[in-house]
Structure formats: C-alpha cells, structure tokens
Amino acid sequence: PLGGPPNGTAGETAERSAEGRIIAVWGPAGSPGRTMLAANMAAELAAGGNSVLLVDADSYGASIAAMLGLLDEAAGLAQACRLADQGLLDGEALLRVAVPVVTKSGTFHVLTGITRADRWTELRAAALSLVLARARQVAEVIVIDTGFCLESDEELSFDTMAPRRNAATLRSLELADEVFAVGAADSIGVPRLVRGLAELESAVPHVSPQVVLNKVRQSAVGRSPERQLRDAWDRYGPAVPVSGFLPADPVSTDAALLSGSLLLEAAPDSPLRRGTAALACAP
C-alpha cells in the first residue's frame, strides 16, 4: 500500500484486498482551516501506521502543494482524472502521479491540486469517481481537502452537459465515508458554519458530519472559550454536536508553513498538533 514498507515494488503494492476509507474535510468560505486540518490529519494517520493518500480537490484555491513546500506544477489530481478518462488509470498509474511526502514519523502520498483556478474543468465528476475508486485499492485512508462551495451548477447554467465547477467537492462529499466540517471559532466563522451545515445537508443529504471548531481563542470568544462555544452551539446551533475544538496557534502554524512541513515535525508538542492527532486517530 501507499506509504507501506519501502522494500515493496510498485507491482507488489499497487492493489490491496480491502477497500480504503475516504475522509473529506470541508468548511465554508473564509479560510476556516480546511487545508491545515486535512494535511495534518493525513500526516497523523500515516504516523499511526496507515497507508494514506491526500487529495487536493479544491477547484477554487488548491494549496496543499504550497503548504507542504512541494515544487509541483504537475497537478497530480488532474493527471489522474485525465488517465481515468482515457481508461488508463490503474493502481500503478495512480502511484506514479502521486507525490510521496516523507516525515520522520511516516510517509504518505499526495495528489496535488490544479495549478490555476481556470483548470477546474479537468476535475470532472465521473473521472474523479474512478480516481477515488482506484485510491481505495491502494491506500487504507484517503483524505480529501475539498472546496467550500456547494452550489449546484445546474442553478447557474442551462447546459446540463457542461462541466461543473463544484463537481469535485460535491462528488468527494458524496463518496466520503466520513466528513469533517471545520469552521472558525469567532463571531463570523460560527454563523458561516451554521449556514454551511444547512447547505451541506441539502446538497448531500446522507452526510452526518463531524463538526470541528478551529482557531479557538479567548480573545475572540471570552473566558473558557470551549465551554462558551459549546453552550452557544447547543443553544443556537444545528442538531449536529461539536466533535472537537482546535486552539488558535499561529506560532506553530507559521513555523510549519515557513519550513514547508507539518505540525508533527514543526511543533510536535503543541496543543494544536495534539488536538489534530486526536481527531485523526479517534475510532
């Protein structure tokens, strides 16, 4: 499997008997921390001994490659979709277009996102479905960083055969076994998340997301911020409970971005890293 023992050849590791599970990380507009959570969850899962594939399916602002310091102009996900359209995508082909990311705790692979926003037409829903089907064969866990927009393109165009700008996000959410919905823990981010969860329920009715409030800080919420946020959510929020709180930690996230690394390397003892690991590795 991906990220497995280094002695295995591509032919030996390209197919697995058990299907991998898909985790999609979604959140509303406004930089709530989707990419940070997705990338670091992938790293934590790999550190736990899983074979992991991280997929950047954000058709508006793909940023996994930049976050990880990858000098990549190849748009791995677009390449995989193109191979799927041509009927050439098997496990070995998927391995070839995925970029390995090596950390001191484990290795995972990345399908990088589109390099320009106007390349979104390359991420067709049918091709992405095939890519994720192959991904399930070569990885135990697939973590997808999705876009924010859930608007159905049929509402924007009368051409029902045209490519869909939000198809990559919607298809990722439809196929996911588990969805994390992340929002910023402040007076703008929380209402956005509440509205976004209603849109998510309408767009993908079967999804039962795990809600994560990110960037929790006393200065934005008041004393005992987690308790205040939970009380306010229970009183005014949707029926979906909050599954986790991640503290604001700009020092750790800045250190990780500056070095093109992940929290488990840049700030292994930080509360943010511990909180992310707890979310990723919970049953």
Strand content of the residues, in percent? 15-25%
Q: What is the mean pLDDT?
A: 90
- Rg (CA only): 18 Å
Q: How can the largest sheet be summarized?
A: 8 strands, mixed
**Helical segment count:** 13
Q: What is the CA–CA distance across the termini?
A: 21 Å
Residues in helix, %: 40-55%
Structural class: alpha/beta
Number of strands: 8
Tell me the strand order in the biggest sheet: 3-4-2-5-1-6-7-8
Instruction: Tell me the quaternary state.
Output: single chain
Shape: globular
Low-confidence segments, ≥5 residues, pLDDT <50?
4-14
Could you state the order of secondary-structure elements as H and E? HEHEHHHEEHEHEHEHHEHHH
Which keywords apply here?
single chain; 283 residues; alpha/beta; globular
Verbal overview:
This protein has 283 residues and is of the alpha/beta class. The chain has helices spanning 10-13, 34-47, 64-67, 76-85, 91-97, 125-138, 167-175, 189-203, 218-221, 225-236, 250-259, 263-266, 271-281, and strands spanning 21-26, 52-57, 99-103, 106-111, 141-146, 178-184, 210-216, 242-247. The chain has an eight-stranded mixed beta sheet with strand order 3-4-2-5-1-6-7-8, sandwiched between helices. Helix 8 links the parallel strand 6 and strand 7 (210-216). Helix 2 crosses helix 13, helix 4 crosses helix 6 (125-138) and helix 6 (125-138) crosses helix 7. It is globular. The chain starts with 9 loop residues before the first helix and ends with a helix.
